[in-house]
Amino acid sequence: MTIRMLGLCGLLAATASAEVVDRIVATVGRKVITASTVRHQIRVAALLDGAPVAETYEAFAAMRDRLVDRLLILEEMRASRYPIPESSEVQPAVEREIQDAGGPARWAELLGHYRLTEEQVRLSLRHQAAVLRFTLNRFRPAVQVDPAQIRAYYDQRLPAQPKPPLEEVRDQIETVLRAEQINVLLSKWLAEVRQNTHIETYEELQP
User: Would you say 65 and 201 are in contact if contact means Cβ atoms under 8 Å apart?
Assistant: First the structure.
């Protein structure tokens, strides 16, 4: 699960019980994830990505699994008393979304199209910011990028032709390499936490 992936899962299904009309699609310890929450998260991700709503079995299952990971991370944040950003802290992000949409009127149309409210999107962005900040603070100190790695990336992975001078792109390459290493550490951590957590997923999925 990458940071980017993490950036796509705003609201978290962390309720202790499901409504009678809803279906439980996963349990993580004593927490549950419901079908309606998965569908809601798919709509949030589609809105933030400016993409159509994915209504396939594969998309539903993938989002369910992402929410399992998100729940594990937020539970670690709760245990560590790691604060969730206040609503005011993500206001600039909300304003960027409105601007990118084409203004308040178009934004309201998009919210209606995706069947979302601005407060739902705002909460999603709060969770996104919290998890990203937690992930960076937790794993970034363990990441080291040396000049040889930067040179190897420049020689082997930079596609631009002709390539700019190395010094012009050194900082960008280092940022990419740090993010890649953080993603690896995050994936390993999630795998370990999954092994120590009682998790059940149910295959009776319907998009």
Answer: yes
